[in-house]
Write a structure and sequence with these properties.
Length: about 280
């Protein structure tokens, strides 16, 4: 038996549902298997978890160091937890486009644990995409073209003061003056956990290939994005209160759908420190 302490049910496209584990209390043997499943599937989904703020933080600490988000509003009293909130009267949502978090950092975050507190009666799903499967489906010619290419990523145009996203989000994002990060990463990385080759560019934060202009880069980047968002590499998660998704930023993209106008959606997100990534 590959997994003896947890039940793993892979989802089409990317990810796996995990059952047979209470995330507020589990033994080290289960933790070893959860880490193995995380490396294998890129995003893990859990239903019916009872996690108050302290238990959510304790869960994250069993995995690694918590990365305190610079831009999100924290849950009152818990700086470790970012509030991902859309009120009924607000029109823009957080994360409403394909992206991977923190690619603008020199050492991008490992991933995030997003826990559903309040969800709309319909809508508000999150899409996930499999960046390793997308790489593996490229032609040998395209893979050869991408080998050795590096791309420039930035936070400035998204979280900086003059960005339209920051303006739309007024009140829910802050600290625009801290949007000073730029980083250069290989376009194809060797995933630090799985060892699989993985595409590491995303529409939100990637600006251009190193040594190329943005105009020169855009056709090839757009072609990669169109390929990566193909339906067969994606999974659409329908949330319920108590659902937790834990994604790996180095293996997946995600996209929060904004199709529940007039309803409230509240999620708690804890992000974990990662490390340098390399080809
Ligand atoms: C995010 O991009 O972190 C938010 C995802 C979501 O709310 O589903």
């Amino acid at each position: 038996m590959e997994y003896q302490n947890i039940v793993v049910a892979p989802t089409p496209g990317v990810g796996a549902f995990i059952s047979g584990v209470d995330l507020s209390e589990f033994d080290d043997a289960s933790l070893i298997e959860l880490k193995k499943a995380f490396a294998e599937y890129g995003v893990l989904f859990f239903r019916d978890q009872q996690l108050d703020e302290s238990k959510h933080i304790a869960l994250a600490r069993r995995w690694g160091e918590i990365n305190i988000n610079r831009f999100f509003t924290p849950v009152p009293g818990y700086p470790e937890i970012a509030q991902v909130l859309k009120e009924p009267e607000q029109t823009a949502n957080i994360g409403g486009g394909w992206h991977t978090d923190h690619s603008y950092d020199q050492e991008p975050a490992l991933g995030s644990m997003l826990y559903a507190k309040e969800v709309p009666p319909a809508g508000g799903d999150t899409l996930f995409a499999n960046c390793a499967a997308a790489y593996e489906a490229l032609s040998p010619g395209m893979r050869a073209t991408l080998a050795g290419l590096r791309a420039v990523h930035s936070s400035r145009h998204v979280f900086g003061e003059s960005s339209s996203y920051s303006n739309e989000m007024s009140g829910r994002l802050g600290n625009a003056e801290a949007a000073t990060q730029d980083a250069v990463h290989p376009v194809v990385i060797k995933h630090p956990l799985s060892g699989r080759k993985t595409l590491y560019v995303n529409p939100a934060f990637t600006l251009h290939f190193e040594g190329w202009t943005a105009v020169e880069s855009m056709p090839l980047l757009q072609q990669l994005y169109n390929h990566m968002m193909r339906a067969e590499f994606t999974y659409r998660l329908q949330w319920a209160p108590g659902t937790l998704a834990f994604w790996d930023n180095r293996a997946t993209w995600h996209y929060a759908l904004n199709d529940y106008q007039g309803e409230r959606r509240l999620m708690h997100r804890i992000t974990l420190d990662g490390g340098r990534i390399a080809a």
